Amino acid sequence: MKIAVIGTGYVGLVAGTCFADMGHDVICVDIDEEKIKVLNEGKVPIYEPGLEELIAKNKAKIVFTTDFDDAVRKSEVVFIAVGTPPKPNGGADLSYVENVARGIAVAAKKPKIVVEKSTVPVQTCERIIQVLDCNNGDGNGNGVKHTVVSNPEFLREGSAVVDFLKPDRVVIGTDNEKARNAMEELYAPLKAEMVFTDIKSAELIKHASNSFLAAKISFINSVANVCEKTGADIEMVAKGMGLDKRIGPSFLNAGIGYGGFCFPKDVEAFIAISEKNGYDFKILKEVQDVNKFQKENFVKTVEDALWNLNGKTIGILGLAFKPNTDDMRFAPSIDIVNALLKEGAKVKAFDPEAMERAKTIFGDKIEYCKDKYEVAEQADAVLFLTEWKQFVEIDLDKMKKSMKQFFVFDGRNIFKPKAMRAKGFKYESIGRL
Ligand code: UGA
Fold this sequence. Notes:
With 433 residues, the protein is α/β, with parallel strands linked by helices. The protein has 18 helices and 14 strands. The strands form three sheets. A six-stranded parallel beta sheet has the order 3-2-1-4-5-6, with helices on both faces. Helix 4 (68-74) packs across helix 5, helix 9 (199-230) packs parallel to helix 12 (282-306) and helix 12 (282-306) crosses helix 13. It binds uridine-5'-diphosphate-glucuronic acid.
C-alpha cells in the first residue's frame, strides 16, 4: 500500500520504517529540512537500537521529504504522527495535529484514510473531521470526504522497532468498513491480534494504557516506601505479587519514578480531558504525587546519609530517563541533579548516550565525565539513576578505589544490598534494607 507518515519523531520514523519493512511504499514527511537531510544521508537523528539498520535495509521503499502536498496526493493512507506536547494547563497541545489535518484537506484531491497515530485525547477525531470538512474545497463540507481512523501506538523508546513489529495488539478505531479493511491489509504482515473499536474508544485506550502503567509504577513505589519503613523487601513482594496472572510481573520495578515524554504528559493530559468532560480523575493525581515524592525522597536519603550536601562531590551514573535511549525529557535525573545543585553539591555525571542532551539542560552547572569510572573519582557518593547494562556490569572494586567516601545510592535497585555492604559500601536502594 502507499502510505504517507507526517512527522518523523520517535513514533513517525519508527512506524514509517517498519511499514516499509512490511512491504509498503512509505513517504516520511517533516517540516524540519535539516532532519530530512540527515535521514537522506542514511543517518538517524535519534538513538534507537536497530532503526538505522532497518532504514538502510528498506531504502528503496522509503522516501524522506519536506514536500507535504506531494506525499499526501501520492498516498492512500496518511498517518498523522506529529507531536502533542503538554500545554501549561496540562492539556495536550493539538495545534500541530490541526495544522496537518488542514494541510491534508487542502492538498488532497481524492478521499484519504487519515490515521491518528499521535497520542491524542479522546474526541480529537471529531475535531480532525471538522477541520478536514471545513478545508476540503468548498468550505461547506461538500468537497472530498476523508475517513478518520484512530490507531494508537504502544512502542517504547529503546525497543521501538521490536515493539512495532511484534505488538501485543493493534488497535483500530473506525466505524467505516472500507477503512477497517484497509487497516487490516496494512497490518496483515504482522499477524498481530487486531482490536477493532469505535474511534473514541481507540483514542481512550492509549491514554488509559499509559496511565495504568504509570499507576502500576507509582503503586509499587508506594509499596516500596512501606517496605522501607517495615523492613520488608520490595523485590520479594513484587515477585510474590507478579506471579498472580491477574497482576503480572512487568512494571513492578520500584525506583526513582517514571520519566520520559509519554507517561508524565499522558497522565497529565488524561486528567485534563477527564476534567474538561466533568470527571475528577483523582487516582491519577495521586499517581503524579507519588512519582514526585520518589525523587524528593531519594535526594533526602542522600542528604540524610551525607549529613550536608554543600561542598560534597556527587557522581551521577545515568541521565537518560531509562536505558537504551538518549532521551532526557522529564527524566528523574533532571529533578534530582537540580535538587543536589540547589543544596550546594558539586555534580559530575556520565551517561552512555545522553551527554549531548544533558549539556543543553545543565550547561556548565555540572561536570561531564568521559566514562563511568571518572564519575567516581574523588566522589563522596555515587548515584545510579539509570540501569544501563554497562552500569550493571561496572567493576565495583575499581570504582570504589577512587571514591573519597563510599556512599552508593541505587535508584534502580541494580545491586544486592548485602553484597554491596560486604564490599564496604554504604549502600541505600529503594524499598530494600
Ligand atoms: C511508554 C509505554 O510503555 C509505551 O507502551 C508507549 O507507547 C509509550 O510510552 C508512548 O506513549 O509513546 P516509554 O515512555 O518509551 O514507553 O518507556 P517505558 O519503558 O514504558 O518506561 C517509562 C518510565 O517508567 C521509565 O522512566 C522507566 O524507568 C519507568 N519504569 C518502568 C519504572 O520506574 N518501573 C518499571 O517497572 C517500569
